[in-house]
Amino acid sequence: MEFIQFLAIEIALPLGIVALLHFKIGNYPQPLPLEGNRLKGIWGTLVIWALLVIVSTTMIIFSDFAEKMADPTPGILLQFILITAVPYILVPVLYLRFVKKWTLKDFGFRKPVPNSRAVIVFAVIVFAISGALPLLNSDFTPLPVLMLIFALWQPAFIEEFFFRGIIQGRLERVIGQNKAWIYGGILFGLVHVFTNFFVVGFDLVPGIIQLIMQIMSGWIFGILYMKTRSLYPGMFAHFLTNSVLASIITMIF
Asked: Considering the entire predicted model, what is its pTM?
């Protein structure tokens, strides 16, 4: 019975939210035009994604960042920001800006499209609830202020900019709107695999369940980005997760 309840809460509920966002709440805007050489575009997107995986995995294996991030100092966080800026920002932005001629709007730095308020409100509420759920745990320890500030960078800005603005933006131009958020969410989940198993230490089954949840989370963020054409709602929603909202509520009250 507990396992069934677990599957209902951790798998069925997020999948239902994905379905609501996809089919019922808000409308998809006009699809972006497809590029001519689709195969080259797919491989180029995968190379950008693989660079991130290689750099992130190497950093975890050959450094003690994972241990230091448990109780970080401003210096450690600054080092992390500078290192992650290369695969997340510098390389893809240089390529897309100077080779593909992307503008700030192409990256998602724009106002949400008209009539997207419903999807924004729904998604923000979902992630706000997720971010507040740790309050139900009697052993919950709020994040320190330094980590709350850092959360504005990772995951709020970095993950939304890279996975939605860059990866999903590229995928829509090479495989179409209907598939872009699906495969973008899968790539978002897969990038967490090494951390799930070798940093957090999940066993096989919990690790797979965590991966599925991360993929579905990527789908929710992907649909939100697709239907708004803006990074800002996703960044705000993403900031509220990972115990951030629970920590803020604890500090205020």
From this structure: 0.95
